[in-house]
């Protein structure tokens, strides 16, 4: 599962839900994926994604960053 941290470095280990509901981190930084949990693209991702609609492409990309358990 991808964890998020503040760009200012004082806030770490937030879930997607915590980051979205917080808006800005308490140190006023933006939330970005932690370096060690940044997802990698599957080998043929760009080729496979080239023919997708905007909505389907968004689902594919966001699913790399958001755990399915965090989506109601």
From TrEMBL:
InterPro entries referenced in this protein's UniProt entry, alphabetically: Thr_synth_N, Thr_synth_N_sf, Threonine_Synthase, TrpB-like_PALP_sf
Threonine synthase N-terminal domain mapped to chain residues: 3-72
Molecular function per GO: threonine synthase activity
A single GO BP: threonine biosynthetic process
Protein name per its UniProtKB record: Threonine synthase N-terminal domain-containing protein
Organism from which the protein derives: Aphanomyces astaci
């Amino acid at each position: 599962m991808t964890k998020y941290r503040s760009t200012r470095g004082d806030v770490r280990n937030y879930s997607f839900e915590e980051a979205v509901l917080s808006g800005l981190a308490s140190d006023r930084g933006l939330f970005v994926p932690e370096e060690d949990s940044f997802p990698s693209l599957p080998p043929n991702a760009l080729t496979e994604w080239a023919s997708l609609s905007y909505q389907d492409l968004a689902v594919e990309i966001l699913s790399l960053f958001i755990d399915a358990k965090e989506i109601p």
